[in-house]
Amino acid sequence: MSEAGERRPVNAEYAVSVLEQLKFFYEQKLMTDITLLVEDNEFPCHKMILATCSSYFRAMFMSGLSESKQTHVHLRNVDPVTLQTIIAYAYTGNLAISDSTVEPLYETACFLQVEDVLLQCRDYLVKKITADNCVRMLSIGDLFSCSELKQSAKRMVEHKFPMVYRQEAFLQLSHELLLDLLSSDNLNVEKEETVREAAMLWLEYNMEARSQYLSSVLSQIRIDALSEVTQRAWFQGLPPNDKSVVVQGLYKSMPKFFKPRLGMTKEEMLIFVEVESPGDNHPVVVGPRHSVVCYSPQAEKVYKLSSPPGDLQKVGTLVTPDNDVFIAGGQVPLKSKNG
């Protein structure tokens, strides 16, 4: 292959120096050819830089239409501070994300189609999902069509359902997202009464506007999974109106079987971790040579679990109130050069 056809490694120092010069030109407003207008703020920029990182600007400047010849562009419904952050990223490659800025950054990057910023914000949000914010993250993922964020948040909502269904964010869920959750087999609930209560709270949050969804929402409740006492109390307490007729009709039309949800299939399990007895100078060790088994007293069966990686020293095990099992070691011994 000739020298002209060889692929040579990128000169990192040169690339960095180019970015530094571009940043200098931006800060000094040198050779700028486009000004972004947001509220009372002006951002003189370079079309080539904006088009490089944003599909929105690329389409605008390369369309050949009148917009491509403009020297000033008005951006509406954009926060100037957030836009400044994205412009700084375009010129430096550095993005500052925090809990307070990630959501407006994600929204603006979605509008301007800045793919790199979108990916970084998405990864940040996924890592920050907790029981306190998972319902809101579910709505955000749905709003911006981010399947990774939506699925991660949904898994957390399903797992923490008894904790989250009273949250304001849950009561404000869209009808479509609510149905997706109520129909899920993976809800971590021990009783169907929890799902029924969640459905009723959502309906009663704005009964006037949501009465049209009464049938679709209540049809997600697995009525035969409710206790007889709950069923009688529920229907006897219904007022004599058209809504009662709808509910009664739903009940009569429900099939006489149901698929248990994830939380209804829980059973007590005992986990045994084989470890070496500690000596005077040897800590507790567990690793791939040691078995980790799970015993079900109810089924009287033993299941083999995955062994921890490496020879973990000072190993510890923990079972949380939510039945999450953690097995971890404090350190992994270094192998000697002669070993």
UniProtKB/TrEMBL annotation:
SUPFAM superfamilies: POZ domain
Entry keyword set: Kelch repeat, Repeat
Pfam families xref list: BACK, BTB
UniProt domain BTB: residue ranges: 32-99
Domain of life (superkingdom): Eukaryota
Alphabetical list of InterPro entries matching this protein: BACK, BTB/POZ_dom, Kelch-typ_b-propeller, SKP1/BTB/POZ_sf
PANTHER family (UniProt xref): KELCH PROTEIN (PTHR24412), KELCH REPEAT AND BTB DOMAIN-CONTAINING PROTEIN 2 (PTHR24412:SF192)
Annotated protein name in UniProt: BTB domain-containing protein
Organism, as annotated: Electrophorus electricus (Electric eel)
Chain's gene name: KBTBD2
